Here is the input.
Amino acid sequence: MCIRDRTTVVHQQVVQTTQASVHQWHESLFGCFSDIGSCCYGFLCPTCAFATARSNMDGSNCLFNCLCVGAAAYNVIRNTYNLEGSCVTDICYTCCCYSCSSCQLLREVKHRGRVDEGSHEGSGGDWHKTLFSCCDDYLFCMYAWLCCSCANATVHQEYDSRSNWCYNCLCFSPCATVNIIREGPYNLGGDCCGDVCSTWLCMPCAITRARAEIRSPGRGGIHAVKTTTTHSTTTHTTHVQQPPAPVSYTHLRAHETPEHLVCRLLLEKKKKKKTVIGV
Here is the structure.
């Protein structure tokens, strides 16, 4: 007999965050004359144009972008809109065609519109760690003191797994990394002046605090791996052995072997002896 027992089995599946498909640039690098105003602005002050492009994209402070982000805004905007390219093309375009790349960003942001990664009002609360609590992670703090640029690149990549470590080391200042982490999805309290002061006051401590914030409960990187639970039902078939059904004495006599016959005769003889003694 078969008994079907339905049981629910829970499977833990690790599912990486689904990323949107890579988009093509709407504006070309050398399409400057399609927007004369952006073209003039980019050629007169390309650094200001980079800063304005990022400010128009996410509402960040334009003066901060001009002083602390600069041409790295090309990489920030490309990653935010998930446009085709790589850190190599970002470096080549901004180094070889500095003004044209800034004009391209202005036109691209104008076409795609603003992306609000955070309200920049600090609604996400304060930092989990204070600036001088870097001793809680003394190994990374020593790493930051020995090579601040390398530690900054590590923190930036831990925050945004799509970023390139070498590019972060060469093109992103610690001040820019702290600002991006604070104003991103975490939306921490503070302002760009605080970001500048904290990194100038103690740059390794600021970097260590940023890393601690990423590793705080409920934070994680913006493209971190998430774990989801899915339920699936499986059917198990269990075979239960039934007790043997009773059979008649005649059936046993018909199927007994010579060995069984000898045993039966001995038992009957023994039973007769017991009966005679009892009488």
Observations:
- The longest strand covers residues 2-16.
- Residues 1-19, 225-238 have pLDDT under 50 and may be disordered.
